[in-house]
Amino acid sequence: MVKYYDSIPEFLFPWIAKQKMFWVATAPLAGEGLINVSPKGMTGSFHVINANKVWYEDLTGSGIETVAHVRENGRITILFHAFEGPPRILRIYGKGTVYEFGTPEYDALLPLDQRKCGSRSIIMLDVFKIGTSCGYAIPFMEYKGERNRLMVHNYNLEIADIAAEAPLDLSTTEPPRPITGLKRYWHFRNNVSLSGLPGMLLAYESRHKFITPEPIKQSRKDDEREPGRLVLRVSAGELKLVAAFLTGVMLTASYVKFVKPRGCPKAELRECRCPSIHPLTLGKQVASDLNLQLKDRLREVHEAVETLKVFTPKRGTSMVAQMMEDSKLSEDSSDSGPQDFY
What we know:
It is a single chain. The chain is of the alpha+beta class. The protein has helices at residues 13-18, 65-73, 104-109, 149-165, 182-189, 236-259, 279-310, 319-332, and strands at residues 3-5, 22-26, 36-40, 46-50, 53-59, 75-81, 89-100, 119-133. Strands 1, 2, 3, 4, 5, 6, 7 and 8 form an eight-stranded antiparallel β-sheet that branches. A hairpin with a 2-residue loop joins strand 4 and strand 5 (53-59). The longest helix has 32 residues, at 279-310.
């Protein structure tokens, strides 16, 4: 049965801490604006301050809908539900506030050495109502582990910023924002929502330097592949190596077939010292060979046509009678014996 509270009951605090994911729903004020629902994961990203105040760490992604909507109107709902144990659904209704990376509020809650790689803001909720319900239709799901692809992506972006900012004093100069860096990503990919609302406004101008994170290696689990589909993953270096090998094979085959001198007895023994044929000369030779072959074929066709003319029977005479008559005439006109005929 559904129950509503004005604050989060304490018995739900440990249950919330055990959940591996939650959903965030927001919407713009415009009547035709897109309603957004975002799934959130990463253990340890959701925090309960007290019964009426919670926050979560917003990690960098390709969209910026939640930040834009909350900044415009503050409306936000967070949904939890149980995949294991007794069924339960929990909705948290609140008024949201955005604290971007580099602001005093962000720094107070998330020091640089405690933030997750790619963390771009904090979404704070002032809770005014919660609702719990049964969740009987939610299936059982087994937790296998975290995906770390987002962390690997954000790690590479932060490393680019760290390398570019290392020799600089950001107290006297603006951040360089390299093209493959995280701050540039915030500036150009997280600057506006689908409804045209402003997204990230301050973080990309922050003079805070990222702390070098621990190296993150992407995990490649079989579970991430589509059923029945074999996925071959190769690096850019491996692709270049394969391309170079195939190019070499094609060049070698072309040389042996077209450029290597023909008819040299030493060619098969790899002892040939004959000069290579120039491509233009090779083309002329190929054209000459084709011309001779064509002439031979035309000559054969011409001879066949003439033969048909000779042995074409006269009108009203069979082919056999005509051949016998021709043979008799040939014997009478020659003293060298019978002549072959076709």
